[in-house]
Amino acid sequence: MHPALSVILFTVASGAGYGSLALFGLLVACGWVTRAHAPGLTVLALGLGLVTAGLLSSTFHLGHPERAWRALSQWRSSWLSREGVAATASYVPALLFALSLALDGGASTTLFALATLVMALITVGCTAMIYRSLKPVHQWHNGFVLPVYLAFSAATGALWVNAALLFRGADARAAAVAGLLTLPILAALKLGYWRFIDTTASPSTAGSATGLGPLGRVRLFEAPHSGSNYLLREMGFIVARKHALKLRRIVLAIGLAAPFALSGLTLATGAAAPALALLAALLATFGALVERWLFFAEAKHSVTLYYGAERA
Amino acid sequence: MTSLPIPGRKQLGLVIDLDTCVGCHACAVACKEWNSGAISAPLTDHSPYGADPEGVWFNRVHAFEVGEGEEGRMAYFPKSCLHCAEPACVEVCPTGASYKRAEDGIVLVNPDTCIGCKLCSWACPYGAREFDEDDGVMKKCTLCVDRIYDEGLPEEERVPACVACCPSHARHFGDLGDPASEVSRLVAARGGFDLMPELGYAPVNKYLPPRAKRCSAAGSGSPQELAPVIDGANPLLRWIDRFLSR
Protein backbone atom coordinates (compact mmCIF):
# COMPACT_ATOMS: atom_id res chain seq x y z
CA MET A 1 0.00 0.00 0.00
CA HIS A 2 1.22 3.47 -0.86
CA PRO A 3 2.49 5.20 2.30
CA ALA A 4 0.75 8.58 1.98
CA LEU A 5 2.55 11.20 4.08
CA SER A 6 -0.70 12.91 5.14
CA VAL A 7 -2.09 9.67 6.57
CA ILE A 8 1.18 8.74 8.29
CA LEU A 9 1.41 12.19 9.93
CA PHE A 10 -2.25 11.98 10.90
CA THR A 11 -2.10 8.59 12.61
CA VAL A 12 1.19 9.36 14.40
CA ALA A 13 0.29 12.89 15.55
CA SER A 14 -3.26 12.10 16.58
CA GLY A 15 -2.06 8.86 18.20
CA ALA A 16 0.48 10.76 20.32
CA GLY A 17 -2.09 13.49 21.06
CA TYR A 18 -4.84 11.11 22.18
CA GLY A 19 -2.25 9.10 24.09
CA SER A 20 -1.19 12.25 25.97
CA LEU A 21 -4.79 13.14 26.75
CA ALA A 22 -5.66 9.58 27.82
CA LEU A 23 -2.59 9.08 29.98
CA PHE A 24 -2.87 12.48 31.63
CA GLY A 25 -6.56 11.81 32.27
CA LEU A 26 -5.65 8.52 33.94
CA LEU A 27 -2.87 10.03 36.06
CA VAL A 28 -5.03 12.95 37.20
CA ALA A 29 -8.03 10.74 37.98
CA CYS A 30 -5.83 8.41 40.05
CA GLY A 31 -4.15 11.32 41.81
CA TRP A 32 -0.67 10.40 40.56
CA VAL A 33 0.15 13.85 39.20
CA THR A 34 -0.46 17.37 40.33
CA ARG A 35 -3.73 19.15 39.64
CA ALA A 36 -1.94 22.51 39.54
CA HIS A 37 -3.32 24.24 36.48
CA ALA A 38 -0.08 25.45 34.81
CA PRO A 39 1.48 22.04 34.04
CA GLY A 40 -1.91 20.46 33.44
CA LEU A 41 -2.95 23.03 30.85
CA THR A 42 0.42 22.66 29.12
CA VAL A 43 -0.12 18.92 28.77
CA LEU A 44 -3.69 19.33 27.53
CA ALA A 45 -2.69 22.07 25.06
CA LEU A 46 0.06 19.81 23.72
CA GLY A 47 -2.30 16.85 23.42
CA LEU A 48 -5.06 18.82 21.71
CA GLY A 49 -2.48 20.53 19.47
CA LEU A 50 -1.13 17.18 18.27
CA VAL A 51 -4.65 15.86 17.73
CA THR A 52 -5.72 18.94 15.79
CA ALA A 53 -2.57 18.97 13.65
CA GLY A 54 -3.15 15.28 12.86
CA LEU A 55 -6.79 15.79 11.93
CA LEU A 56 -5.90 18.73 9.66
CA SER A 57 -3.17 16.63 8.04
CA SER A 58 -5.69 13.87 7.30
CA THR A 59 -7.79 16.26 5.21
CA PHE A 60 -4.87 16.65 2.79
CA HIS A 61 -5.49 13.03 1.80
CA LEU A 62 -8.98 13.91 0.57
CA GLY A 63 -10.00 14.70 -3.00
CA HIS A 64 -12.60 17.13 -1.61
CA PRO A 65 -11.48 18.39 1.85
CA GLU A 66 -14.29 20.96 1.87
CA ARG A 67 -16.77 18.08 2.12
CA ALA A 68 -15.00 16.48 5.12
CA TRP A 69 -17.95 17.26 7.39
CA ARG A 70 -20.00 14.68 5.49
CA ALA A 71 -17.75 11.98 6.95
CA LEU A 72 -19.57 12.30 10.31
CA SER A 73 -22.78 10.78 8.95
CA GLN A 74 -22.17 7.04 8.43
CA TRP A 75 -21.12 5.93 11.93
CA ARG A 76 -23.50 2.98 11.75
CA SER A 77 -21.33 1.12 9.24
CA SER A 78 -18.02 2.93 8.69
CA TRP A 79 -15.05 2.92 11.06
CA LEU A 80 -13.73 6.05 9.34
CA SER A 81 -16.97 7.83 10.10
CA ARG A 82 -16.93 6.53 13.69
CA GLU A 83 -13.40 7.85 14.04
CA GLY A 84 -14.53 11.26 12.80
CA VAL A 85 -17.43 11.34 15.26
CA ALA A 86 -15.26 10.15 18.17
CA ALA A 87 -12.49 12.63 17.30
CA THR A 88 -14.94 15.53 17.18
CA ALA A 89 -16.76 14.43 20.35
CA SER A 90 -13.56 13.98 22.34
CA TYR A 91 -12.87 17.74 22.18
CA VAL A 92 -15.81 18.24 24.59
CA PRO A 93 -14.50 16.30 27.62
CA ALA A 94 -10.91 17.40 26.89
CA LEU A 95 -11.87 21.10 26.89
CA LEU A 96 -14.05 20.64 29.99
CA PHE A 97 -11.10 18.84 31.62
CA ALA A 98 -8.91 21.86 30.85
CA LEU A 99 -11.60 24.26 32.13
CA SER A 100 -12.08 22.37 35.40
CA LEU A 101 -8.31 22.26 35.95
CA ALA A 102 -8.11 26.01 35.35
CA LEU A 103 -10.98 26.67 37.80
CA ASP A 104 -10.43 24.44 40.82
CA GLY A 105 -9.20 20.93 40.01
CA GLY A 106 -11.97 19.48 42.16
CA ALA A 107 -14.30 16.52 41.82
CA SER A 108 -15.51 17.55 38.36
CA THR A 109 -11.89 17.32 37.18
CA THR A 110 -11.83 13.61 38.01
CA LEU A 111 -15.01 13.09 36.01
CA PHE A 112 -13.77 15.00 32.95
CA ALA A 113 -10.32 13.36 33.19
CA LEU A 114 -11.93 9.92 33.02
CA ALA A 115 -14.24 11.00 30.17
CA THR A 116 -11.20 12.30 28.26
CA LEU A 117 -9.41 9.00 28.84
CA VAL A 118 -12.35 6.98 27.51
CA MET A 119 -12.95 9.18 24.44
CA ALA A 120 -9.25 9.22 23.52
CA LEU A 121 -9.06 5.42 23.72
CA ILE A 122 -12.22 5.05 21.62
CA THR A 123 -10.87 7.41 18.95
CA VAL A 124 -7.53 5.61 18.62
CA GLY A 125 -9.41 2.31 18.59
CA CYS A 126 -11.54 3.57 15.69
CA THR A 127 -8.40 4.63 13.77
CA ALA A 128 -6.96 1.14 14.19
CA MET A 129 -10.24 -0.50 13.17
CA ILE A 130 -10.22 1.37 9.84
CA TYR A 131 -7.22 -0.79 8.91
CA ARG A 132 -8.11 -3.86 10.97
CA SER A 133 -11.43 -4.21 9.14
CA LEU A 134 -9.98 -4.32 5.60
CA LYS A 135 -10.07 -7.95 4.49
CA PRO A 136 -8.14 -7.42 1.22
CA VAL A 137 -4.96 -6.50 3.17
CA HIS A 138 -3.62 -9.47 5.14
CA GLN A 139 -1.00 -7.34 6.96
CA TRP A 140 -3.82 -5.14 8.34
CA HIS A 141 -6.63 -7.62 8.82
CA ASN A 142 -5.24 -9.29 11.95
CA GLY A 143 -5.44 -9.20 15.73
CA PHE A 144 -2.19 -7.27 16.22
CA VAL A 145 -3.30 -4.02 14.59
CA LEU A 146 -5.65 -2.72 17.30
CA PRO A 147 -3.31 -3.38 20.29
CA VAL A 148 -0.31 -1.99 18.38
CA TYR A 149 -2.14 1.26 17.61
CA LEU A 150 -3.27 1.59 21.24
CA ALA A 151 0.20 0.78 22.59
CA PHE A 152 1.91 3.25 20.24
CA SER A 153 -0.56 5.91 21.29
CA ALA A 154 -0.05 5.19 24.99
CA ALA A 155 3.76 5.02 24.77
CA THR A 156 4.29 8.16 22.67
CA GLY A 157 1.63 9.93 24.77
CA ALA A 158 3.42 8.98 28.03
CA LEU A 159 6.73 10.32 26.73
CA TRP A 160 5.18 13.62 25.67
CA VAL A 161 3.35 14.01 29.01
CA ASN A 162 6.62 13.27 30.82
CA ALA A 163 8.43 15.95 28.80
CA ALA A 164 5.69 18.57 29.20
CA LEU A 165 5.41 18.04 32.98
CA LEU A 166 9.18 18.17 33.46
CA PHE A 167 9.45 21.39 31.43
CA ARG A 168 6.79 22.87 33.71
CA GLY A 169 8.77 21.76 36.77
CA ALA A 170 6.12 19.32 37.94
CA ASP A 171 6.64 15.85 39.39
CA ALA A 172 6.51 13.59 36.31
CA ARG A 173 7.60 10.27 37.81
CA ALA A 174 4.23 8.61 37.13
CA ALA A 175 4.42 9.59 33.43
CA ALA A 176 7.99 8.31 33.15
CA VAL A 177 6.96 5.02 34.74
CA ALA A 178 4.03 4.80 32.30
CA GLY A 179 6.51 5.17 29.44
CA LEU A 180 8.77 2.51 30.94
CA LEU A 181 5.80 0.13 31.22
CA THR A 182 4.27 0.71 27.78
CA LEU A 183 7.44 0.71 25.64
CA PRO A 184 8.34 -2.97 26.32
CA ILE A 185 4.70 -4.01 25.74
CA LEU A 186 4.76 -2.12 22.45
CA ALA A 187 8.05 -3.74 21.42
CA ALA A 188 6.65 -7.20 22.18
CA LEU A 189 3.48 -6.50 20.19
CA LYS A 190 5.40 -5.10 17.24
CA LEU A 191 7.79 -8.08 17.18
CA GLY A 192 4.77 -10.38 17.30
CA TYR A 193 3.19 -8.46 14.41
CA TRP A 194 6.32 -8.72 12.25
CA ARG A 195 6.63 -12.41 13.02
CA PHE A 196 2.98 -12.84 12.02
CA ILE A 197 3.30 -11.07 8.66
CA ASP A 198 6.59 -12.87 7.92
CA THR A 199 5.17 -16.33 8.54
CA THR A 200 1.61 -16.10 7.22
CA ALA A 201 -0.05 -15.05 3.96
CA SER A 202 -3.50 -14.09 2.83
CA PRO A 203 -5.79 -17.02 1.94
CA SER A 204 -6.15 -15.41 -1.48
CA THR A 205 -3.87 -16.40 -4.35
CA ALA A 206 -3.69 -15.68 -8.07
CA GLY A 207 -5.61 -18.95 -8.41
CA SER A 208 -8.51 -17.84 -6.19
CA ALA A 209 -8.48 -14.28 -7.55
CA THR A 210 -9.05 -15.55 -11.08
CA GLY A 211 -10.87 -18.75 -10.11
CA LEU A 212 -8.51 -20.57 -12.50
CA GLY A 213 -6.48 -22.26 -9.74
CA PRO A 214 -8.06 -25.71 -10.31
CA LEU A 215 -6.64 -25.71 -13.87
CA GLY A 216 -3.03 -25.25 -12.76
CA ARG A 217 -0.57 -22.59 -11.69
CA VAL A 218 -1.81 -19.11 -12.64
CA ARG A 219 0.66 -16.41 -13.65
CA LEU A 220 0.25 -13.09 -15.39
CA PHE A 221 1.05 -13.22 -19.10
CA GLU A 222 0.14 -9.68 -20.02
CA ALA A 223 -1.03 -6.75 -17.91
CA PRO A 224 -4.21 -5.01 -19.08
CA HIS A 225 -2.39 -1.73 -19.67
CA SER A 226 1.13 -0.79 -20.66
CA GLY A 227 1.37 2.26 -18.38
CA SER A 228 0.64 2.69 -14.69
CA ASN A 229 -2.74 3.38 -13.13
CA TYR A 230 -4.35 4.37 -9.84
CA LEU A 231 -4.52 0.77 -8.62
CA LEU A 232 -0.80 0.17 -9.13
CA ARG A 233 0.25 3.48 -7.60
CA GLU A 234 -2.10 3.22 -4.59
CA MET A 235 -2.01 -0.50 -3.91
CA GLY A 236 0.98 -1.90 -5.76
CA PHE A 237 3.64 -0.22 -3.60
CA ILE A 238 6.52 -2.60 -2.88
CA VAL A 239 9.32 -2.07 -0.37
CA ALA A 240 12.53 -4.07 -0.71
CA ARG A 241 12.78 -6.71 2.01
CA LYS A 242 16.31 -5.68 3.05
CA HIS A 243 15.18 -2.05 3.52
CA ALA A 244 12.17 -3.21 5.52
CA LEU A 245 14.44 -5.20 7.86
CA LYS A 246 16.72 -2.20 8.36
CA LEU A 247 13.76 0.06 9.05
CA ARG A 248 12.37 -2.41 11.58
CA ARG A 249 15.69 -2.27 13.45
CA ILE A 250 15.54 1.53 13.38
CA VAL A 251 12.04 1.40 14.92
CA LEU A 252 13.21 -0.95 17.68
CA ALA A 253 16.49 0.84 18.45
CA ILE A 254 15.68 4.52 17.94
CA GLY A 255 11.91 4.46 18.43
CA LEU A 256 11.63 2.11 21.40
CA ALA A 257 14.93 1.19 23.10
CA ALA A 258 16.50 4.68 23.16
CA PRO A 259 13.36 6.39 24.58
CA PHE A 260 13.15 3.61 27.19
CA ALA A 261 16.71 4.30 28.36
CA LEU A 262 16.22 8.08 28.28
CA SER A 263 12.96 7.83 30.26
CA GLY A 264 14.77 5.79 32.89
CA LEU A 265 17.43 8.48 33.08
CA THR A 266 14.82 11.22 33.62
CA LEU A 267 13.92 9.48 36.90
CA ALA A 268 17.54 9.60 38.07
CA THR A 269 18.74 12.98 36.84
CA GLY A 270 17.81 16.46 37.95
CA ALA A 271 18.43 19.48 35.74
CA ALA A 272 18.95 17.47 32.56
CA ALA A 273 15.68 15.57 32.93
CA PRO A 274 13.45 17.89 30.80
CA ALA A 275 15.90 17.81 27.88
CA LEU A 276 16.26 14.02 28.12
CA ALA A 277 12.48 13.57 28.25
CA LEU A 278 12.02 15.81 25.21
CA LEU A 279 14.64 13.82 23.32
CA ALA A 280 12.89 10.58 24.30
CA ALA A 281 9.54 11.89 23.02
CA LEU A 282 11.07 13.12 19.76
CA LEU A 283 12.89 9.83 19.11
CA ALA A 284 9.78 7.76 19.86
CA THR A 285 7.71 9.97 17.54
CA PHE A 286 10.33 9.55 14.82
CA GLY A 287 10.21 5.79 15.44
CA ALA A 288 6.41 5.89 15.17
CA LEU A 289 6.66 7.68 11.80
CA VAL A 290 9.04 5.00 10.48
CA GLU A 291 6.83 2.25 11.88
CA ARG A 292 3.70 3.75 10.29
CA TRP A 293 5.49 4.11 6.94
CA LEU A 294 6.40 0.41 7.16
CA PHE A 295 2.84 -0.47 8.18
CA PHE A 296 1.76 0.82 4.77
CA ALA A 297 4.80 -0.18 2.72
CA GLU A 298 4.75 -3.81 3.92
CA ALA A 299 0.99 -4.18 3.37
CA LYS A 300 0.04 -6.07 0.22
CA HIS A 301 -3.41 -5.60 -1.26
CA SER A 302 -5.17 -8.50 -2.96
CA VAL A 303 -5.49 -6.47 -6.19
CA THR A 304 -1.77 -7.18 -6.74
CA LEU A 305 -2.83 -10.78 -7.47
CA TYR A 306 -4.22 -9.51 -10.78
CA TYR A 307 -0.90 -7.85 -11.60
CA GLY A 308 1.59 -10.68 -11.22
CA ALA A 309 1.72 -11.44 -7.47
CA GLU A 310 0.99 -15.11 -6.75
CA ARG A 311 0.29 -14.50 -3.04
CA ALA A 312 -0.61 -11.38 -1.11
CA MET B 1 -26.79 5.48 3.74
CA THR B 2 -23.83 3.13 3.60
CA SER B 3 -25.50 0.49 5.71
CA LEU B 4 -26.53 -2.17 3.25
CA PRO B 5 -30.15 -2.29 2.09
CA ILE B 6 -32.25 -5.35 2.78
CA PRO B 7 -31.26 -7.50 -0.19
CA GLY B 8 -33.81 -7.27 -2.97
CA ARG B 9 -34.78 -10.15 -5.19
CA LYS B 10 -33.28 -8.48 -8.23
CA GLN B 11 -29.48 -8.72 -8.50
CA LEU B 12 -28.35 -7.38 -11.86
CA GLY B 13 -24.91 -8.42 -12.94
CA LEU B 14 -22.65 -9.93 -15.56
CA VAL B 15 -21.61 -13.45 -16.42
CA ILE B 16 -18.20 -13.59 -18.10
CA ASP B 17 -17.19 -16.64 -20.10
CA LEU B 18 -13.46 -17.31 -19.81
CA ASP B 19 -13.82 -20.04 -22.41
CA THR B 20 -14.88 -17.80 -25.27
CA CYS B 21 -13.21 -14.51 -24.32
CA VAL B 22 -10.53 -13.82 -26.93
CA GLY B 23 -8.91 -10.91 -25.07
CA CYS B 24 -9.67 -8.33 -27.77
CA HIS B 25 -10.26 -5.49 -25.24
CA ALA B 26 -13.40 -4.41 -27.14
CA CYS B 27 -15.41 -4.46 -23.87
CA ALA B 28 -12.84 -2.25 -22.14
CA VAL B 29 -12.82 0.25 -25.02
CA ALA B 30 -16.61 0.26 -25.39
CA CYS B 31 -16.91 0.82 -21.62
CA LYS B 32 -14.47 3.73 -21.75
CA GLU B 33 -16.27 5.22 -24.74
CA TRP B 34 -19.77 4.98 -23.23
CA ASN B 35 -18.82 6.13 -19.76
CA SER B 36 -16.76 9.06 -21.01
CA GLY B 37 -20.12 10.61 -21.86
CA ALA B 38 -22.36 9.01 -19.23
CA ILE B 39 -23.22 9.76 -15.58
CA SER B 40 -19.69 9.26 -14.24
CA ALA B 41 -18.10 11.35 -17.00
CA PRO B 42 -15.44 12.36 -17.55
CA LEU B 43 -13.18 9.32 -17.16
CA THR B 44 -10.13 11.49 -16.91
CA ASP B 45 -7.02 10.63 -18.91
CA HIS B 46 -3.60 11.96 -18.13
CA SER B 47 -1.12 12.44 -20.97
CA PRO B 48 -3.31 10.45 -23.40
CA TYR B 49 -0.97 11.10 -26.33
CA GLY B 50 2.25 11.31 -24.28
CA ALA B 51 4.89 8.79 -23.35
CA ASP B 52 3.03 7.43 -20.29
CA PRO B 53 -0.68 7.65 -20.93
CA GLU B 54 -2.98 6.60 -18.12
CA GLY B 55 -6.50 7.18 -17.03
CA VAL B 56 -9.62 5.94 -15.32
CA TRP B 57 -11.13 2.74 -16.74
CA PHE B 58 -13.98 0.65 -15.32
CA ASN B 59 -13.09 -2.54 -17.12
CA ARG B 60 -9.64 -3.98 -17.78
CA VAL B 61 -8.64 -7.18 -19.56
CA HIS B 62 -5.81 -9.17 -17.99
CA ALA B 63 -4.16 -12.19 -19.64
CA PHE B 64 -3.00 -15.19 -17.63
CA GLU B 65 -1.10 -18.37 -18.39
CA VAL B 66 -2.66 -21.32 -16.58
CA GLY B 67 -1.09 -24.75 -16.14
CA GLU B 68 2.15 -26.08 -17.58
CA GLY B 69 3.24 -27.80 -20.77
CA GLU B 70 0.59 -29.66 -22.71
CA GLU B 71 -1.95 -28.79 -20.04
CA GLY B 72 -1.09 -25.11 -20.28
CA ARG B 73 -3.47 -22.57 -21.73
CA MET B 74 -4.10 -18.85 -22.03
CA ALA B 75 -7.01 -17.25 -20.21
CA TYR B 76 -8.14 -13.74 -21.02
CA PHE B 77 -9.66 -12.22 -17.95
CA PRO B 78 -11.85 -9.10 -18.11
CA LYS B 79 -12.39 -7.55 -14.69
CA SER B 80 -14.84 -4.88 -13.61
CA CYS B 81 -17.00 -4.20 -10.53
CA LEU B 82 -18.71 -7.40 -9.38
CA HIS B 83 -21.60 -5.55 -7.65
CA CYS B 84 -21.10 -7.72 -4.56
CA ALA B 85 -23.94 -8.74 -2.28
CA GLU B 86 -21.63 -7.91 0.67
CA PRO B 87 -19.83 -4.83 -0.66
CA ALA B 88 -17.37 -3.66 2.00
CA CYS B 89 -16.63 -0.70 -0.30
CA VAL B 90 -20.11 0.57 0.55
CA GLU B 91 -19.95 -0.08 4.29
CA VAL B 92 -16.60 1.68 4.78
CA CYS B 93 -17.75 4.86 3.02
CA PRO B 94 -17.90 7.58 5.70
CA THR B 95 -20.25 9.89 3.79
CA GLY B 96 -22.89 7.66 2.24
CA ALA B 97 -21.65 8.56 -1.27
CA SER B 98 -21.06 4.88 -1.99
CA TYR B 99 -24.27 2.89 -1.99
CA LYS B 100 -25.93 -0.31 -3.14
CA ARG B 101 -29.35 0.04 -4.71
CA ALA B 102 -32.04 -2.04 -3.04
CA GLU B 103 -34.08 -2.28 -6.25
CA ASP B 104 -31.48 -3.95 -8.49
CA GLY B 105 -28.29 -4.42 -6.44
CA ILE B 106 -26.16 -2.02 -8.50
CA VAL B 107 -23.31 -0.40 -6.53
CA LEU B 108 -22.85 3.28 -7.35
CA VAL B 109 -20.97 6.38 -6.15
CA ASN B 110 -22.64 9.77 -5.74
CA PRO B 111 -20.00 12.17 -7.10
CA ASP B 112 -21.60 15.13 -5.27
CA THR B 113 -21.02 13.71 -1.77
CA CYS B 114 -17.82 11.66 -2.28
CA ILE B 115 -14.97 13.28 -0.33
CA GLY B 116 -12.28 11.29 -2.17
CA CYS B 117 -10.89 9.51 0.92
CA LYS B 118 -10.14 6.41 -1.25
CA LEU B 119 -11.03 4.02 1.58
CA CYS B 120 -13.57 2.19 -0.63
CA SER B 121 -10.82 1.36 -3.12
CA TRP B 122 -8.79 -0.17 -0.28
CA ALA B 123 -11.82 -2.17 0.86
CA CYS B 124 -12.43 -3.65 -2.61
CA PRO B 125 -10.32 -6.82 -3.02
CA TYR B 126 -10.81 -6.79 -6.80
CA GLY B 127 -9.49 -3.33 -7.68
CA ALA B 128 -12.79 -2.33 -9.20
CA ARG B 129 -12.65 1.31 -8.13
CA GLU B 130 -10.38 3.91 -9.63
CA PHE B 131 -9.83 7.40 -8.21
CA ASP B 132 -10.23 10.31 -10.62
CA GLU B 133 -7.42 12.71 -9.66
CA ASP B 134 -8.98 15.59 -11.59
CA ASP B 135 -12.49 15.24 -10.21
CA GLY B 136 -11.22 14.29 -6.73
CA VAL B 137 -13.85 11.54 -6.46
CA MET B 138 -13.93 7.76 -6.76
CA LYS B 139 -15.31 6.21 -9.94
CA LYS B 140 -16.49 2.73 -10.81
CA CYS B 141 -18.57 0.57 -13.15
CA THR B 142 -22.22 1.65 -13.10
CA LEU B 143 -23.40 -1.48 -14.94
CA CYS B 144 -24.38 1.16 -17.52
CA VAL B 145 -27.31 2.17 -15.34
CA ASP B 146 -27.89 4.99 -17.83
CA ARG B 147 -28.30 2.47 -20.69
CA ILE B 148 -30.07 -0.54 -19.29
CA TYR B 149 -33.21 1.39 -18.29
CA ASP B 150 -33.23 3.85 -21.21
CA GLU B 151 -36.49 3.30 -23.06
CA GLY B 152 -35.24 5.61 -25.79
CA LEU B 153 -32.87 2.85 -26.86
CA PRO B 154 -34.00 -0.17 -28.89
CA GLU B 155 -34.61 -3.04 -26.46
CA GLU B 156 -31.63 -5.12 -27.63
CA GLU B 157 -29.33 -2.21 -26.79
CA ARG B 158 -30.52 -1.93 -23.19
CA VAL B 159 -27.51 -3.88 -21.94
CA PRO B 160 -24.15 -2.63 -20.63
CA ALA B 161 -21.86 -1.33 -23.38
CA CYS B 162 -19.32 -4.09 -22.69
CA VAL B 163 -21.97 -6.76 -23.30
CA ALA B 164 -23.36 -5.11 -26.43
CA CYS B 165 -19.98 -4.97 -28.15
CA CYS B 166 -18.49 -8.36 -27.25
CA PRO B 167 -17.69 -10.09 -30.56
CA SER B 168 -17.27 -13.55 -29.02
CA HIS B 169 -20.43 -13.53 -26.91
CA ALA B 170 -18.34 -13.93 -23.76
CA ARG B 171 -20.36 -11.42 -21.72
CA HIS B 172 -23.92 -11.92 -20.53
CA PHE B 173 -26.12 -9.50 -18.61
CA GLY B 174 -29.15 -10.33 -16.52
CA ASP B 175 -30.78 -10.86 -13.14
CA LEU B 176 -28.65 -13.22 -11.09
CA GLY B 177 -31.10 -12.97 -8.19
CA ASP B 178 -33.66 -14.89 -10.26
CA PRO B 179 -32.70 -18.58 -10.41
CA ALA B 180 -34.83 -19.03 -13.54
CA SER B 181 -33.15 -16.23 -15.54
CA GLU B 182 -31.06 -17.03 -18.58
CA VAL B 183 -27.84 -15.92 -16.85
CA SER B 184 -28.57 -17.95 -13.70
CA ARG B 185 -29.22 -21.05 -15.79
CA LEU B 186 -26.00 -20.44 -17.69
CA VAL B 187 -24.07 -20.21 -14.41
CA ALA B 188 -25.67 -23.44 -13.17
CA ALA B 189 -25.01 -25.30 -16.42
CA ARG B 190 -21.39 -24.24 -16.81
CA GLY B 191 -20.29 -24.28 -13.15
CA GLY B 192 -19.92 -20.52 -12.82
CA PHE B 193 -17.80 -19.36 -9.89
CA ASP B 194 -17.08 -16.35 -7.63
CA LEU B 195 -13.73 -14.55 -7.52
CA MET B 196 -11.97 -14.81 -4.13
CA PRO B 197 -14.94 -16.50 -2.42
CA GLU B 198 -12.75 -16.91 0.70
CA LEU B 199 -13.06 -13.19 1.47
CA GLY B 200 -16.84 -13.38 1.72
CA TYR B 201 -17.87 -10.47 -0.51
CA ALA B 202 -20.43 -12.64 -2.32
CA PRO B 203 -19.93 -11.09 -5.76
CA VAL B 204 -23.02 -11.01 -7.98
CA ASN B 205 -20.99 -11.23 -11.21
CA LYS B 206 -19.97 -14.77 -12.07
CA TYR B 207 -17.21 -16.22 -14.23
CA LEU B 208 -17.55 -19.33 -16.39
CA PRO B 209 -14.47 -21.60 -16.47
CA PRO B 210 -12.68 -22.56 -19.68
CA ARG B 211 -14.13 -25.82 -21.03
CA ALA B 212 -12.07 -29.00 -20.83
CA LYS B 213 -9.80 -29.46 -23.83
CA ARG B 214 -11.29 -31.85 -26.39
CA CYS B 215 -7.86 -33.20 -27.27
CA SER B 216 -4.32 -32.57 -26.14
CA ALA B 217 -1.79 -30.86 -28.36
CA ALA B 218 0.10 -34.15 -28.67
CA GLY B 219 -2.94 -36.20 -29.69
CA SER B 220 -4.31 -33.82 -32.31
CA GLY B 221 -2.92 -35.87 -35.24
CA SER B 222 -0.45 -33.25 -36.40
CA PRO B 223 3.11 -34.49 -36.98
CA GLN B 224 5.59 -34.10 -34.13
CA GLU B 225 8.09 -32.53 -36.53
CA LEU B 226 8.03 -31.48 -40.15
CA ALA B 227 9.42 -33.97 -42.69
CA PRO B 228 11.74 -32.60 -45.40
CA VAL B 229 10.01 -32.02 -48.77
CA ILE B 230 12.81 -33.81 -50.66
CA ASP B 231 13.21 -37.40 -49.53
CA GLY B 232 16.15 -37.97 -51.83
CA ALA B 233 14.69 -41.02 -53.57
CA ASN B 234 12.95 -39.37 -56.56
CA PRO B 235 15.53 -38.48 -59.30
CA LEU B 236 13.28 -35.77 -60.82
CA LEU B 237 12.81 -34.02 -57.49
CA ARG B 238 16.52 -34.38 -56.77
CA TRP B 239 17.31 -32.67 -60.05
CA ILE B 240 14.79 -29.85 -59.35
CA ASP B 241 16.32 -29.40 -55.89
CA ARG B 242 19.83 -29.15 -57.36
CA PHE B 243 18.60 -26.73 -60.03
CA LEU B 244 16.81 -24.46 -57.55
CA SER B 245 19.66 -24.63 -55.05
CA ARG B 246 22.10 -23.13 -57.52
What is the strand content of chain B? 15-25%
What characteristic shape of chain A results from the CA principal axes? globular
| Helix and strand sequence of chain A | HHHHHHHEHHH
DSSP helical segment count of chain A: 10
Number of contiguous helices of chain B: 7
**Overall morphology of chain B:** elongated
**Helix/strand/pairing category of chain B:** alpha+beta
- Give the SSE string of chain B: EHEEEEHEEHEEHHEHEH
Proportion of helical residues of chain A: 55-70%
Number of extended strands of chain B: 11
Distance from N terminus to C terminus of chain B (CA atoms, Å) equals 83 Å
Q: Tell me, rounded to a whole number, the average pLDDT of chain A.
A: 95
Describe the structure.
The complex is a heterodimer of chains A (312) and B (246). Chain A has 312 residues and is mainly alpha-helical. Chain A is built from 10 helices and 1 strand, in the order H-H-H-H-H-H-H-E-H-H-H. In chain A, helix 2 crosses helix 5. Chain B has 246 residues and is an alpha+beta fold. In chain B, 20% of the residues lie in helices and 18% in strands. Chain B has helices at 26-35, 88-91, 119-123, 145-148, 161-165, 182-190, 235-245; strands spanning 12-17, 45-46, 54-55, 60-66, 73-79, 98-100, 107-109, 130-132, 137-139, 171-175, 206-208. In chain B, the strands form 5 sheets. Chain B has a 3-stranded mixed β-sheet with strand order 10-1-11. In chain B, strands 2-3 form a two-stranded antiparallel sheet. A two-stranded antiparallel ribbon of chain B has the order 4-5. The mean pLDDT of chain B is 92. The chains are: A mainly alpha (312), B alpha+beta (246). The interface between A and B is large, with 58 and 72 residues. Strand 1 of chain A pairs antiparallel with strand 4 (60-66) of chain B.
